[in-house]
Specification:
The protein is mostly beta strands and 615 residues long. It is built from three helices and 40 strands. The strands form six sheets. It has a ten-stranded antiparallel beta sheet with strand order 34-33-32-31-40-39-38-37-36-35, with no helix packed on it.
């Protein structure tokens, strides 16, 4: 029988290894959940992988910290890993999806291994799948194969695609929101006089959808929206029945319901009247309005922000037209500029600013840490022995959010390690404690300490974040480019013009996907063209985004956006043989894309024009 002291020594090593592995995942270098397999033998090794379920949040911070089971789709109960090769017997191992990590040991040495990951539901059916080939395994080593992208098996879209809050960006009446239950029901809507239940919806496998919103009978008929999803996070719609038939717009998933959290204060100014109301309301982490001043209570409602847009709907105790209010607009920094509509279908301009994040700093966190880019170095310690766990970068634009992000990451990792180990018979784990050093002008340290007691023996460990100013690229924050853009192109030489649209999203956790649509007589053709699909890799320290696509509806496209806001693009091999190439230069900001293009014809002549997009 192993004595308590030997057990504790083994546990110390496990603690340290697991902590380092978890934080290697944070630093985008996936790792397994148990000690190294170097003791297996000289003819075998191990494989570790991180799974990306295609549910990454738009916040770049959220993607960096996607280390726990929250990123696993709710329907996935078991993860099955299968390793195959031409000269080996298949190896299969199942992990509970809630573990969030796993390690395959005893893999024969070789260079042609294929790793297949399957996501199984409660009945054992395969509902997600991903793989990675040509994996090399060395004797006594753990091969980190990085990220396997998990894709749904079966129809690309279903009612489950529409789940939670989504924003609607209308070409007529600003923005609104709909909250879907993922099962065909509408559970909430930012609209006037909704009935109970508010509505229903149906999504087809090809992404087409119908949404029916119910109003109380004395007010108006049902509103019916039909449209199509371009991805699991965006699409377009048309109102086919209701108060404003023919209204069109985009529908965008709200990736973070807490994005509007805080206290919003400002004015609502009626159009054509000298009436201005000063209002203030507080939004919590779920998007719910919890308190208000300037409007008679009780005040309830919700507010959501996504891709630079905001939509709020308030129900108040006012006896007049202000009994219900729709407020919407665009977000720039902490300011909202837009419009409002009241219950009498009149309104005006809305100007609000975010006064606070609605949170407070954790006790002891240094409040003088300035905004900017930071490098976080990770150190894990167990019983006096410490080892580096890598590093990652993070931007501080709001001290409360910055603090909470770091603290949550530490707690997530410690809980992930200690939950299983502390469940052993005879072992207990008092709550971990977090301490901070003061800001010294360049850095500070966060330490999360824990103690595990088994029988009469104890073992202590800790994880440290050494937070140092600097490290990430400065300039344009590429994540601010995510969202829906609209605008037009104008050919100054020939006097023609047309519509332009752009939808940018994050896919597979680290790729920016852009879908560009151009309407009108584009490069001499009025034929309808499918969207131009472009992808660019994105990393925390990226200094540019480089998109490329060959064989699109307009030719071979290459686009580069620099962190200094510069824009350069070329189009070659165009379908029209009379056009040799197109060159674009311009500027990009979080709200405006301005490009100046030159078309060069095979005859040597040229034409010039502009492309403008805003959000």
């Amino acid at each position: 029988m192993v004595g308590e002291g030997g057990k504790m020594n083994t546990m110390k090593n496990i603690f340290l290894t697991r902590l380092l592995c978890i934080f290697a995942v944070i630093a985008l270098a996936g790792c397994g959940g148990s000690p190294s397999s170097s003791s297996i033998g000289d003819s075998t090794g191990s494989i570790a992988a991180r799974l990306d379920w295609g549910q990454g949040k738009s916040s770049f911070v959220a993607k960096l910290f996607a280390v726990s089971a929250v990123s696993v789709p709710a329907a996935v109960v078991t993860v099955r890993i299968i390793v195959t090769g031409s000269d080996m017997t298949n190896i299969q191992k199942d992990f509970p999806a809630a573990d969030g990590q796993g390690l395959i040991e005893g893999v024969p040495v070789g260079s042609d291994r294929t790793v297949t990951a399957l996501g199984l539901d409660a009945g054992g059916a395969i509902i997600y799948k991903g793989s990675k080939g040509t994996v090399s395994v060395a004797a006594g080593q753990t091969t980190d194969i990085g990220t396997i992208t998990m894709l749904p098996v079966g129809p690309a879209f279903s009612n489950a695609t529409l789940n939670g809050p989504w924003l609607l960006t209308s070409n007529v009446q600003g923005r609104a929101y709909i909250i879907f239950d993922g099962k065909g029901g509408v559970s909430g809507v930012g609209a006037f006089h909704p009935a109970t239940p508010p509505g229903t919806y149906q999504v087809q496998p090809d992404g087409s959808f119908t949404i029916t919103l119910n109003e109380v009978p004395v007010v108006g008929p049902q509103t019916v929206l039909t449209g199509s999803l371009a991805s699991s996070g965006s699409g377009s719609y048309t109102v086919t029945q209701g108060r404003i038939p023919g209204e069109t717009g985009n529908i965008i998933r709200v990736s973070n319901p807490a994005a509007c959290q805080g206290t919003w204060s400002g004015t609502l100014s009626e159009q054509g009247a000298s009436v201005t109301r000063t209002v203030s309301f507080t939004v919590d982490g779920s998007g719910a309005v919890t308190s208000s001043t300037g409007l008679a209570g009780p005040v309830t409602g919700k507010m959501f922000c996504e891709a630079g847009f905001a939509a709020a709907f308030l129900r108040t105790g006012e006896p007049n037209a202000y009994n219900q209010l729709n407020i919407s607009g665009t977000i720039s920094g902490s300011a909202l500029a837009g419009s409002f509509i009241n219950d009498s279908n009149s309104g005006g301009t809305a100007s609000l600013s975010l006064a606070s994040t609605g949170g407070t700093l954790p006790a002891g966190f240094p409040s003088s840490v300035p905004t900017g880019n930071y490098t976080i170095s990770i150190v894990a310690c167990s019983s006096g022995f410490c080892s580096s766990g890598g590093s990652f970068t993070q931007i501080n634009t709001d001290i409360n959010q910055f603090a909470q992000t770091l603290v949550d990451a530490l707690n997530t990792a410690n809980n992930q390690v200690l939950t299983s180990d502390c469940a052993q018979a005879g072992c207990s784990c008092p709550a971990a404690s977090i301490s901070y050093t003061p800001w010294d002008g360049t850095s500070f340290t966060i330490t999360d300490s824990f103690t595990v007691t088994c029988g009469g023996s104890s073992s202590s460990g800790s994880v440290q974040f050494i937070v140092t100013q600097g490290g990430a690229a400065s300039g344009l924050d590429f994540t601010t480019l995510l969202g829906t853009w609209t605008g037009q192109w104008v050919n100054s030489t020939f006097g023609t013009s047309g519509s332009a649209g752009l939808v940018t999203t994050i896919v597979a956790g680290n790729t920016v996907h852009a879908g560009l649509t151009l309407g009108g007589n584009v490069f001499g053709s009025t034929a309808a063209r499918p969207p131009i699909s472009l992808d660019a890799p994105l990393s925390p320290a990226a200094t540019s985004l480089s998109f490329a696509a060959v064989g699109t509806s307009i030719g071979d496209v290459h686009v580069t956006i620099g962190s200094d806001g510069s824009l350069e693009a070329t189009v070659t091999n165009l379908p029209d043989p009379s056009i040799a190439s197109v060159a674009v230069t311009g500027t990009v900001s979080s709200k405006l894309i301005q490009g100046f293009y030159t078309i060069t014809f095979t005859s040597g002549s040229t034409a010039v024009g502009t492309l403008t997009l805003s959000k």
